[in-house]
Amino acid sequence: LKVRCSHAATFRLAALAQGAAKSVVERSGAESKRPPLHSMRLGGRVRAMSKGTRGFRRSVAVLVAAAGLVAVSAGAGSAGPADDRFDQITGPLGATVVYPDEFGLDPSAVVVDPTPLLGSVDRDRAMAFVESLAFPRTASGPEEARQRARDIVTQGYTDAGYETQSQPVVWNGLSSPNLYAELPGTDCPSRTIVIGAHYDSAHPTGPGADDNATGVAATMELARALRNHPLPVTVRFASWSFEEVGLVGAFQMALVMKADGDDVVGAISLEMLGFTKDGIDPLSGLPNDYMAMVADPTSASLARTFAAAAYRYTPEHPAFGAVIDPAVLGDILRSDHAAFLSQGFPALMATDTANFRNPNYHQPTDTPDSLDPDFLAANARSMLAGLVTLAASDQDHDGRADLCGPAEPTTTTTSTTSVTTSSEADATTSTSQPGTTTVGVKAAGAAAPVSGTAVYTG
């Protein structure tokens, strides 16, 4: 049995089936149970498996099971284009894709709703940023080009309403810092999600539009969308240097955060988000217009969360989570998230699949006019939905983000009068309020800049 219907129709069908089942059970006195969520595919892959319904009680069980499955599927998101795409997956990597019944969470159970934020992503603004950054900015090229790229990135953070922070990075005697901005969390600011993209390029004459001006542009769109809507945890929007010569900037940041004892609950790399083409992707069996959100098995929860959020909040856009063992496909480590993974932080890469799809990869032809602006904007929206869902998920419905721990029990206290000293008042007024971007600088000497090349190259 395949169920495909609109979100509203889904709820109507669920109510109808539940009402009919209740009526039948009341007449018969029979009791029935909803099967476990993991027992069947949801949405476009709902399967009712039976050798035949023999007897009255089995008919009741099937009816109630259908009601339960449809209701839970409605919580995950609306059926439609997303479900159709799941049905099309036939390639060798299909077994790694996270299907709706494998999400393991309800993406609608959040303390911050992503929906009103998605409209903040602006396609034309994102493409304008790509065009401004589309010029050679390599490790082997002139310093003037690298400085120009840093100026563009810094201005991007400024335009989004942030103060840009700089972190020294050195490779083979060349200095090109990481640039980042932070949005302090409103509930547990000591926990941090890092999300960003490398701002350097690879080819000496290629503009590096898809690789990786698109990733930086998407980072800026996410930062802008959340500027006045902080999340329960701190978000660090990062722009890494020297990715193309070994993830050097990302390793520097990951090592420093590890040395500082930072609680990084997720590190997400936005790696090439703008290219589509005709034809079928042989790895997945899908048309070449989907975004992959890939994690290794130790970070599978990130892939499930981002996949669930995309399915729920951007169902019209094909964005799929996948869990792939690097031993099977080492290419999943060819971006900045791998540096954080090496330090024990959960990590994920979002990508248009790079050279597996884009023939302009590391070529002079990687230009803005080869990109799909609508695809870039849709990818940014899906990643925004995933970021908010990760930070604000409240699966136990206690009113507090799960990443921040359980809500404090409500207690009754006796009102007292207290005296506040001037120093206490100063401390109170200096505390960052939700929505501000006053960011503390890391303690000096926490870790030395990384030199040389790293294991992976993008």
Which helices and strands, and how do they pair?
Blueprint: H1 7-28, H2 56-76, H3 81-88, H4 115-118, H5 123-133, H6 143-160, E1 165-167, E2 170-171, E3 174-175, E4 178-183, E5 188-198, H7 209-226, E6 233-240, H8 248-259, E7 263-271, E8 291-295, H9 300-313, E9 319-323, H10 337-342, E10 347-351, H11 373-392, H12 422-430
Parallel strand pairs: 5-6, 5-7, 7-10, 8-9
Antiparallel strand pairs: 1-4, 2-3, 4-6, 8-10
Search tags:
36% helix, two-stranded antiparallel sheet, 12% strand, alpha/beta, disordered C terminus, 458 residues, disordered N terminus, eight-stranded mixed beta sheet, single chain
Structure write-up:
The chain has 458 residues and is an alpha/beta fold. It is built from twelve helices and ten strands. Strand 8, helix 9 and strand 9 form a beta-alpha-beta unit. Helix 5 crosses helix 11 (373-392) and helix 9 (300-313) packs across helix 11. The longest helix has 22 residues, at 7-28. It is globular and about 60 Å long.
